[in-house]
């Protein structure tokens, strides 16, 4: 099956810093989504991005499908950005999830 | 537009009991997927329902079952609870079947004692 690896596993930054989170996947996919899980467990869909680049405010994402990776950029981090960021990929009926990157933003 | 609503949010059960969790999708969404999240296994797909039919199923034992009603609301049931069933159960809705763009509910946190 498809393997999904996220890096780094943990990231601690000061407020205002920028960060790049990476997602590598082992096979061709036609679905890739980035999620943020807040400390209370709520999963928020950030991007649906099987290929190309998208931006939403301080967040942007790029997926290079031919090279099997995706990047999530967070600029000017805020404490509310803390939580776990998941990459999930799929080729048929289900999403395979990475283990996540735990991000802590210190004030 | 209301989001995905899951009930109950928290519950405690003992081994051997059964539990039913409910999920109301976003209005107009016909697909409901269920996921289990545990610290050891991460997020794992349970099953997906679309138009009252189970379309896809993950690799879970038969103790885990679900159904969907004509109004797209879905329930999942776990029978003969085991300690390892303690988890956050997440429901997601989407317009289309398959691994479409998912919107998640807040989850139901189950503790099995």
Describe this structure in words.
The complex is a heterodimer of chains A (107) and B (113). By secondary structure, chain A is mainly β. Chain A has one domain (4-106): Immunoglobulins (Immunoglobulin-like, Sandwich), CATH 2.60.40.10. Chain A is built from no helices and eleven strands. In chain A, strands 2, 4, 5, 9, 10 and 11 form a six-stranded mixed beta sheet that branches. Chain A is globular. The model of chain A has no long low-confidence stretch (mean pLDDT 95). Chain B is an all-beta fold. In chain B, the strands form two sheets. In chain B, strands 2, 4, 5, 6, 9, 10 and 11 form a seven-stranded mixed beta sheet that branches. A four-stranded antiparallel beta sheet of chain B has the order 1-3-8-7, with no helix packed on it. In chain B, β5 and β6 (53-57) form a beta hairpin. Classes of the chains: A mainly beta (107), B mainly beta (113). Chain A binds chain B through residues 31, 33, 35, 40-45, 48, 86, 88, 90, 92-95, 97-100, and chain B through 33, 37, 42-45, 48, 55-56, 58, 88, 90, 92, 97-104, 106-107, 109.
């Amino acid at each position: 099956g498809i393997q999904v690896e996220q890096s780094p596993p943990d990231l601690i930054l000061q407020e205002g810093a920028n960060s790049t989170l990476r997602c590598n996947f082992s096979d061709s996919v036609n679905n890739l989504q980035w999620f943020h899980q807040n400390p209370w467990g709520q999963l928020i869909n950030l991007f649906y991005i099987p290929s190309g680049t998208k931006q939403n405010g301080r967040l942007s994402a790029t997926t290079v499908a031919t090279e099997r990776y995706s990047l999530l950029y967070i600029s000017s981090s805020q404490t509310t950005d803390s939580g776990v960021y998941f990459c999930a990929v799929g080729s048929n009926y289900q999403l395979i999830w990475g283990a996540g990157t735990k991000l802590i933003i210190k004030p | 537009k209301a989001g995905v609503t899951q009930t109950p949010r928290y519950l405690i059960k003992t081994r051997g009991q059964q539990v039913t969790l409910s999920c109301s999708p976003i209005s107009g969404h016909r697909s409901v997927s269920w996921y289990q999240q545990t610290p050891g296994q991460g997020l794992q797909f349970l099953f997906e329902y679309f138009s009252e039919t189970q379309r896809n199923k993950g690799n879970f034992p038969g103790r885990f079952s679900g159904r969907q009603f004509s109004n797209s609301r879905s329930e999942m049931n776990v029978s003969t609870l085991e300690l390892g069933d303690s988890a956050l159960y997440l429901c997601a809705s989407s317009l289309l079947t398959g691994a479409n763009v998912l919107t998640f509910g807040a989850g139901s946190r189950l503790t099995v004692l």
